[in-house]
Amino acid sequence: MGLGGAAESLGAADLPRDGRGCSPAVTLNVKMGTFHKVMLGVVCAATGAGCARAQAAGGEACPRPATGSVIEEPEDLRSVGGVLRVDVAYRNELDVGGHMRYCYVFGDGSESPNLRVHPGDLLILELKNELTVAPGGMSIAMPMGGHGGAGEDPCSGGKMTAASTNLHLHGLNIPPICHEDDVLKTSIQPGDPPFEYKVRIPAGQPPGLYWYHPHMHGFTKVQVLGGASGALIIEGVERANKELSGMPERVLVIRDQDLLNPNAAPNPGAEAPPVVLDSDGDVMNTGTGTGKPAKDLSVNFVPVPYPNYEPATIKMKPRERQLWRVLNASAITYLNLQILWNAVPQWMAVVGLDGVPLNYIGRGGGGVAWQTHVGIAPGGRAEFVFAAPAEGVATLETLSVDTGSGGENDPVRPLARIVVSGDAPEPRAKLASSPEALPRPALPWLGDVAPVRTRKLYFSEILQDPKDPNSPTTFFITVDGQPPKAFDPASNVPNIVARQGDVEDWIIENRSLELHAFHIHQLHFLLLERFGSAVNEPFLRDTINVPFWDGKTSRYPSVKLRMDFRDSNTVGLFPYHCHLLEHEDGGMMGLVRVEPQAGAPVENLPEKASGAVALKRK
Ligand SMILES: [Cu+2]
Description:
Blueprint: E1 76-78, E2 83-94, E3 100-106, E4 114-117, E5 122-129, E6 168-170, E7 195-200, E8 208-213, H1 220-225, E9 230-234, H2 237-240, E10 248-257, E11 296-299, E12 302-304, E13 312-316, E14 321-328, E15 335-341, E16 344-345, E17 348-353, E18 356-357, E19 369-371, E20 374-376, E21 381-387, E22 393-398, E23 413-420, E24 429-430, E25 454-463, E26 473-479, E27 496-499, E28 503-510, E29 516-520, E30 525-530, E31 533-534, E32 543-546, E33 558-564, E34 572-578, H3 581-585, E35 589-595
The structure holds copper (II) ion.
Copper (II) ion (CU) binds next to loops.
């Protein structure tokens, strides 16, 4: 179906909601002078008393736009001649409200730019850990020279603390090895020299929206919540869908953050259901679609804080069609986007999810799903065409999401005013106007391949003190038949062993009272069933919402996924986990080890894969 066609249901992209819900190329190779800067602030032992807070004023290391600002597009860093080479400083600071900000500042001074590469390109990224503040506000003691103070190899799985970091390229089908996409053992410390990531983008990587963020088990939530994320775009979506040729495109990164006004009373007239906090201090789901949110949201770092929700601003020309590429980089917040004009929900023509065009390798459907609202789980992406109204102002909002009785509160709230005017500036980027069609994928369509086995996994939670509802929760994702066990970063023992070349079906159950978002590294999967009923989704995802259990029904909610281990880049040890990052940090992660196919050539396979799992080169 073309962009002008009739409505078609996207089905499983929906999320539960309550009744209310309804340039010229530039290669950056600028060495950062800050790599060797003198660290400021009071350095003291972590346990020392009376230490001053570092950078208490905030706003210098990680500057952020003001509430109500016009939404600026992230800078575009583009590959040239098949290579994108960038230097990144990873910094943090406390803002004036005592909230920790984290940021990626690139060699050109831009924060969290769009990294734009083509299939087959080489991405070389040098990451320097310049964190200076530990959670709680104490300065991080810096070793005098040397390497993180411990002399450890960043690939060795050594020290992992709140000051450590690494980088995950979410959604890319690249090897899970150090200096590429290993997150299990790679740990970069303040004081380490710049750490090189060197990644060959697969020739067959679907074109679309991906992203980068840290993945340091136990500390992922605090870093992502503080703003450590950015978009990575595989160019060529117009090659999969020619109706996008020449279309202006706009990248919107929606992040969550701790409430800027946590003690503010609700606005007069606003519904104010009782506030109940969970053990993390987050507002629990009120079940009404209203009330104080668990987290504030921001759009390209422009905050839209409770209780006024003063929206950010987007300017568009009348009736102009743009490709909106939306990333939910939230740590825990679900989105269900809608655009209203004169109180009428506007059509959004969804053309890609989780980086994959809807018609990339699927069958039927024509590559477009017409929606009036689009659910995006934390970690997920949606790309859709939106046509500005003829005049006036439209509103981008998120509808409420019912996260279950154990979930956080994600109420309905506005995000941005879309102001229509003839003199609105054009977005910086435009898709190519005469695209060459993408070649057909080399492998047969996943839906046509018979699985070699079916496995069942389930999400569950337990209170650490069952008698105390406010005690911390331990989070599990368990392979059915194994004892539930929180993820142990010291262990290299996989929960699942698969073989390259195979396709498997995984049933993921939710035995807890809140939503979870299943994500697996290195590959995309196909959604086959929801609640045991077949769904018709001729496209791929890398993150999927698993509905919550109501505590009563005899059958747990579930999804059935077809997992694709055919590509040699999936060989090695890598995680699957819930993408609500406090759940992941709390143990809701497991490991799969994909062993090389006997006799098959394996590209990019190191002598020793991440962790202690030795894989022989065939
Ligand atoms: Cu979860």
